[in-house]
């Protein structure tokens, strides 16, 4: 959409949040400011008034409380207004004082806590020396050092412009503007999407971090795929489901994370509209496939642990093939059906084409109904099912642990193997739910608050979810000895020997 400025064209770009969202932010942040001020005020009054509290540790605590009180008044209150209004309305001089006070008070907090830790060290480790080492005079010196050093760091850095030393030209040409962030830059000229230009060092760092995640995701899951496909001992129903999960993670790394990395760092989509549709469709497809894979894996684990006698008859190779087919077919219908049939913007087409879509952008826009239904179907219902299933498995596994001494050694080995597999897959599921939950909460809330969630925050939650595909192979490497042994065979090149597929990777 067309950018809005703080003070007219040439000033900083302003993000306008809906009234309801701004009211919620003011209530939430305002409550934090009030609690900070009042809470620390009570500490200050208590220590200052009651003579029994006039001790060296409490003087240090008093200094910390003063720091937090001033932070609430001088920093948190104006910062609340700036965060919600997304503009600075108090002038350049107050901006400098604000930034200086922010650095000063944060530094003072750290130094106060450092001196408090020294006080506690002597009180606990050297109680006999404590009365002589930590006196009122010592505490006063600590407090003076704290505030003097903090003042020099805070005001010296800002007013002597040490924070922009060597980058003055870049700062004044690209960052400084009336009211806050720089004048907008567009992906393809005026009328196209607004582009956020990160400094070169930030872009290099992002490419290194996200690029490493992409490489780890692709290679890690490729090792899982090759291991399960090549070694005959791993051709079991459970591992076929694990193979399906690894394939979805591998494809996510290649088809989604790689172009997503470029889009996230450059903040523009340079690959055209059709590839954008394929990209978003594949994104939905692979995320849905991961959830369904984990759902079926939880069912497999349920029968393996809770009904071990029924397991060989219920979970066969044929059963797992059906599960895998259902996973990918349903995921393909959801992913490509929602995007190519425009179900995600049904009822809001006019708003989408007038306010959201622009040249150089590629986002998954959904209506409130579409986002809620897709999140409930693709994440919340399967998540609740998986949690319930693993809770049942955990209870049964605990009973098995208590009765393990009554079983013979062979049975013990089988049960130990099953419990370890269940624990590993439960961790994989737990990690999945943890990293994707912030995104799906944001995904549902965003339409309800007028699509005002900052794109940077939204992208952060998306990448947090993507990192799940990076973590899964690391979990295998940590918990599965067969994966580590297979990895060694693959890396050493012995996998190319004719008899390697029959190698025993673990004792059955």
CA distance, first residue to last residue: 61 Å
H-E string:
EEHHHHHHEEHHHHHHHHHH
Q: How many distinct beta strands?
A: 4
Low-confidence stretches: none
Q: How would you characterize the largest beta sheet?
A: 2 strands, antiparallel
Gyration radius, in Å: 29 Å
Instruction: Tell me the CATH superfamily of the largest domain.
Output: Rhodopsin 7-helix transmembrane proteins
Helix/strand-derived category reads mainly alpha
CATH fold category name of the largest domain: Rhopdopsin 7-helix transmembrane proteins
Identify the CATH class of the largest domain: Mainly Alpha
Report mean pLDDT, rounded to a whole number. 83
Sum up the overall morphology in one term.
globular
Helix proportion of residues, in percent? over 70%
Q: How much strand?
A: under 5%
User: In what order do the strands lie side by side in the largest sheet?
Assistant: 1-2
Number of continuous helical runs:
16
Indicate the CATH architecture of the largest domain. Answer: Up-down Bundle
Number of domains: 2
Short description:
This protein is an all-alpha fold and 508 residues long.
List keywords for this structure.
508 residues, 2 domains, Rhopdopsin 7-helix transmembrane proteins, two-stranded antiparallel ribbon, mainly alpha, 74% helix
